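Hey, I'm writing a tutorial for new members on how sequence and structure tokens pair up, and I'd like a real worked example in the thread rather than a made-up one. If someone can provide the structure for the chain below, I'll link this post from the tutorial.
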Amino acid sequence: MEKLYTYLRFLRNKLPRRDKSSVLNLDEDVELKYYRLQKISEGSIKLMAEEETPVYGAANVGTGQTEPVEKKLSKIIDILNERFKTDFTPADELFINSVQEDAVNDEKIRTAAKANKLVGFSYVFNKIIDNLFADRLEQNEALTEKFLNDKVFKKFVSDYMMKQVYKEILEKEVENHQEIRQ
């Protein structure tokens, strides 16, 4: 309920006031990616002794959707730590995720992904990825330093991110074409 409340509170701000003529597309504006649960207080709730009302739990839980088969980003952090003897934390996955999002939103990379196969796309991607990591240097110096100085680490991360960015751009293109047809 708390997650739903938080999501709907932000969604309400994005909805138009009274215009019902256009179809809403909030995919780019509202997306709950991170959620933090914090304990605010602890206490007891006393029930009235004379009232006996049964409480029933939810019968069906979940959305019925399965987890995607893709590797989770934290698994990539685990692989990097094991393979390159680093000790990046799950917090570093936010850094890699933000660089990946920057790459997906970069116009040159998007154009290259639409016009090329993965091999051709790699030439453009590899030229731009250094700048994207450098732009994020202040946010995560250790990861950026490892990326810029260790060629094997850089190749592994670049290859992984290149495939993910390429796939995400092409999936968004398919979605956009489907929306236009509707």
